[in-house]
Amino acid sequence: MKKWIIIIAVVLVGLIVIGVLYEAGYLNFKWSTLSMIFAALAGPYMYIKNKLFNTNNVDTIDDMIRKAQDGLKVDADHRAEYDEQIAQRETKISHLKEQTTEFDRQIEQLQLQAATTKKEVKEMSSDEMAAAFEQLYGNERDE
Q1: Given this model, what pLDDT does residue 2 score?
Q2: How far is CA 131 from CA 53, 116, 121, in A?
Q3: Helices of type H across the chain
Q4: Cβ atoms of residues 132 and 124 within 8 Å
Q5: How far apart are CA 42 and CA 28, in angstroms?
Q6: Shortest CA distance to 37 belongs to which of 23, 26, 49?
Q7: Measured between alpha carbons, how far is 109 from 115 in angstroms, rounded to an integer?
Q8: What is the rounded distance in angstroms from the CA atom of residue 32 to the CA atom of residue 17?
């Protein structure tokens, strides 16, 4: 609570000083002037802030380093797990590609066989067709 009171007091004193200097005519507020003022105030502000709210002690730094190392270990574990999953999926993909290639070869053979069969059927006489039909489906007259 004491820190906040000090910060509020510093801000109020800064605003009062700027107001007095403006009333006296020493400050002409232009963008470049404002930029210089804010840049000049940024240094002391950061110094005061770091002195009042400094949390960079050895324990917090060690905790941050430990958390970073733990994070790196977790990342390495995830990476190993994902690499294994990727390898399994690549193996599955290659197996599926082999199956696809085999199916394509079988389809080509069946298409070639179908074309050959159509050609043979066109060249058959009616007696040969009847004999082939009876051989495949049997003779319905005898049954």
Answers
A1: 82
A2: 103, 19, 12
A3: 2-24, 31-52, 58-123, 126-137
A4: yes
A5: 19
A6: 26
A7: 10
A8: 19
Model confidence pLDDT, tens digit, residues 44-91 = 777 877 777 776 677 778 888 999 999 999 999 999 999 999 999 999
Using an 8 Å Cβ cutoff, are 33 and 27 in contact? yes
Distance CA 41, CA 28 (A): 17
Closest CA to 36 of 11, 10, 16, 18: 18
Q: Is residue 13 helix, strand or coil?
A: helix
Distance of CA 123 to the CA centre of its chain: 63
* DSSP category for residue 53: S
Instruction: Compute the distance between CA of residue 54 and CA of residue 62 in angstroms, rounded to an integer.
Output: 15
Global pTM value: 0.43
CA distances in angstroms from 62 to 53, 56, 69, listed in the order given:
18, 10, 10
